[in-house]
Amino acid sequence: MTAVVDPPRPGQAAVAAPSRPVTRNRRRSNRREALLFGALILPNLAAILVFSYYPTIYNVVLSFMDWDMVAAAPEWIGLANYQDLFTSDDFYTVLGNTAIFTGVAVVGSLAGGLAIGQLLSQRLKFSGFTRTMAFAPHMLPGAAVGILWLFMFDPTYGLSRWFFGLFGLTSPSWTTTSDWSIWAITIAYTWQRLGFVAIIYYTAIQDLPRDVYEAAELDGARGFGLFWSITRPLLSPVTFFLTVTGIISAAQAFDIIATLTGGGPGNSSATLTWMVYEEAFQRFDVGTSAAAATVLFLVLLGVTIVQTRTAGRQVHYS
Predict the structure, then answer these.
(1) Does 27 fall in a domain?
(2) The pLDDT of residue 2
């Protein structure tokens, strides 16, 4: 027998209809959707656990071991690897190199990329070709970029010799002297990332709200003042994204260092990433390599947490 609910009379509050019981078909549909969700998410979850979290955890375990990849099994030595690391002057030299390389590369690519992105957003001839050429270095492998800059930095017949010759100066030996090697890898890496940052800024500038600019222009804002007061704050979410990804990417750079300087002369251009490789595959000290990798992981984790906590200060707009 079907219950009939009378419509509410004028002045009478509407009575809520009784909720429909969940039918068997509905329960089957929910079960199928749950199984489908599990089937889709499980391979990705398994891949993340196996290829990301497990190597990270195993690396931390190895940092407390002594192993040369020849012995049958690693030997537990506690904090000895960290003690050797933090009492070594070479480690602090590597930390300083990493800070210089990462800081200059991120700031340089942000400043240069914003300037190029702003220029590309203007209506100029051959703008499509220019955008392609600006993005092209980012498509090159790091090893190819290193070889390219190896020729450009050559003090005998490279582009560096011609440039310094314009001012009557002699080109420095970029890749073979400890005073210039860190700047050689920094310049090459910044050049490679510049196109990517410029394209991201260019795309973001195209999507900025035009009504804000029209209101600012009515108030008399022009030129650099318009850029500094309107464009720069509106681009802060993009700048935040590029800063986080830039720091992580620069701290993990390897191929440009390998092809340009090999971390030398000495350890003048060695970063933490290069130290991880050198300790493991040249000195066969897996424990020290794992300890350096753990320090790099903790530094990047700390930087990311600080940046995420300050993300609320960015400008948000729809």
Answers:
(1) no
(2) 44
